[in-house]
Amino acid sequence: MILEFTFENSFSYKDEAYFSMEAVKGTKYKNEFEKLCNHRILKSSIIFGPNASGKSNLIKSLKTFRNLVLKKDDKKENPCPTFADNSNPVKYAVTFFAEGVIYKYSVSYKHDEIISELLEIESNGVLKTYFERKENNVYSIIPAELELLISKTRKDNLFLNTAKTFDDPHCLNVFRWFRNKLLFVSNDGLPPLDELYKLQNNKPFRKRLLAFLQAADLTIEDFEVIKTPLDFPYELKSFFDSFEDLVDYQMTLRHRHTTSKSDFATFPISLSSESEGTKKLISLAIILLSLKDSTIFIDEFDDSFHVELSKALIEVFNYHKNCNQFILTSHELALMDAGFKKEQIFITKVYFCPHAPEQKCTCRKPNPKMILDACKEFDIELENSLMIGDKPSDVEAGKRAGVGRNFLLDGISFKDVRDVLNKLKKEKSL
After folding, report:
1. Cβ contacts of residue 113 below 8 Å, gap of 6+?
2. How far apart (Å, rounded) are the C-alpha atoms in residues 316 and 310?
3. 427 SS3 class
4. 3-state secondary structure 54-81
5. pLDDT value for 430
6. Residue closest to 119 by CA, chosen among 174, 60, 62, 43
7. What's the count of helices (H) and strands (E) in the chain, helices before strands?
């Protein structure tokens, strides 16, 4: 489980960015795991923001960190994604809970060189250095039993990977967390059919999976996954020593439909012909039912889902028996009203006025400059937008900018944002 992630000079982030999954002190115990090493860790969070605000790049940054640890050099994506292609190092640091221990692992690197590397382990609430690697491959702190591995680590390789190869227990724990416990669900990917193929004959799992899908108002009655060898031309077969891993998986779902007032029948549909929403739902179901103690990132979570289904899934993510952690991104502000507490909600872009009232600037409300700047940066349609403020100057700024509808949280008509959202739902304008 992730506690926090910091990153710098990565994709659209120039300065250090900070993301936390620790519950705020003093808040109610809600939507959290039981205390882990005396830490209150949230079960889920959701990141809101318009296009190009940095939501996806937060996820891409952690995914790049994962690929670095796993030595996955995806040529489709930059393995060293610096801000504006500068020559400064990319910096990543993640704190997480694994195997009963709190770890913090930090790396800064360029294309062909690891600049620094640090592994810390929490003991009695304090992070203590396990090994530290500085510039020019200088190690300031390292366990005596690992000193012989320094010469075996090239400047472009992680010491973590060298140490895990020689079965260092802590380095193995960190590597396995990145490999097995950190997952990314994409909108254009297929469900993990290889995993489903293994599990389809497990009767309790099969029953729970079908119940989950049917609860989402789907007409799915049953499914089957078959494994078939990939078909290669005869001329290419000599290039392969074994064909055991060269397989493909095909999934067929059986749907129920009404043939008359009292009769029902079923018909098969291949997974490739199903909607994107159905594919995504199957992926989530497999994750929820087969994984444990994992952290799952879902970009554009609500894409292909209607709002009520998205809210129902969030309830599942926060359910006390759920043992996985979910981090979501979304455009759909209606999901703020889905049982999250405030520290579970992140906003990726904030505008503020740095001027004193006597400076008479153009951005201090009720002047509309900050609203107009946001509209220009993110191509927002003002007439189809809402302004919700807790001061009359907020509403006046919205009106001056040309915002379609403006609401004041006056404590009478509207006590909070939830009241506004409920009104819009009743009007069927949300």
Report:
1. 155, 156
2. 10
3. coil
4. CHHHHHHHHHHHHHHHHCCCCCCCCCCC
5. 57
6. 174
7. 10, 17
CA angle 255, 261, 262 (to 5 degrees): 75
Take residue 18 and report the two structure tokens written for it.
């900070």
Helix (H, G, I), strand (E, B) or coil at 378: helix
What integer pLDDT is reported at residue 235 of this predicted model?
55
E strands, 99-201, in order:
101-110, 113-123, 126-134, 138-141, 182-185
Cβ within 8 Å of residue 81, ≥6 positions away:
10, 11, 60, 61, 64, 90
Task: Please give the radius of gyration of the chain, using alpha carbons only, rounded to the nearest integer.
Answer: 25
C-alpha 146/C-alpha 129 separation (Å) is 14
Annotated domain spans of the chain: 2-181, 190-290, 352-426
Would 2-181 and 352-426 be classified into the same CATH topology?
A: yes
Element (H, E) at 426: helix 417-426
CA pair distance 349, 344, nearest whole angstrom? 16
Does residue 243 have a pLDDT over 60? Answer: no
Give tens-digit pLDDT for 257-301. 877 666 778 889 998 888 888 888 998 999 889 889 999 999 999
Residue in the structure block whose two tokens are 């009232």:
357
CA pair distance 365, 272, nearest whole angstrom: 52
Assign 295 to helix, strand or coil.
strand
Q: Which two tokens stand for residue 62?
A: 């952690």
pLDDT over threshold 80, residue 399: yes
Cβ(389)–Cβ(420) below 8 Å: no
Of the options 3.40.50.300, 3.90.79.10, 3.40.50.2300, 3.40.50.720, the CATH number for the domain spanning 2-181 = 3.40.50.300
CA dist list (Å): 146 to 93, 139, 166, 243, 389 = 22, 11, 9, 39, 58
Query: What topology does CATH give the domain 352-426?
Result: Rossmann fold (3.40.50)
Alpha-carbon distance of 221 to 238, in angstroms, equals 43
Beta bridge partners of 118: 106, 132
Q: Which position has the token pair 């900018």? A: 401
Q: Where are the beta strands (DSSP E) in 80-218?
A: 90-98, 101-110, 113-123, 126-134, 138-141, 182-185
Q: Determine the Cα–Cα distance for residues 43 and 39; give it in Å rounded to an integer.
A: 12
Torsion from C-alpha of 358, 362, 368, 372, nearest 10 degrees:
-150
SS3 of 303-352: the string is CCCCHHHHHHHHHHHHCCCCCCEEEEEECCHHHHHCCCCHHHEEECCCCC
What 3-state class would DSSP assign to 190?
coil
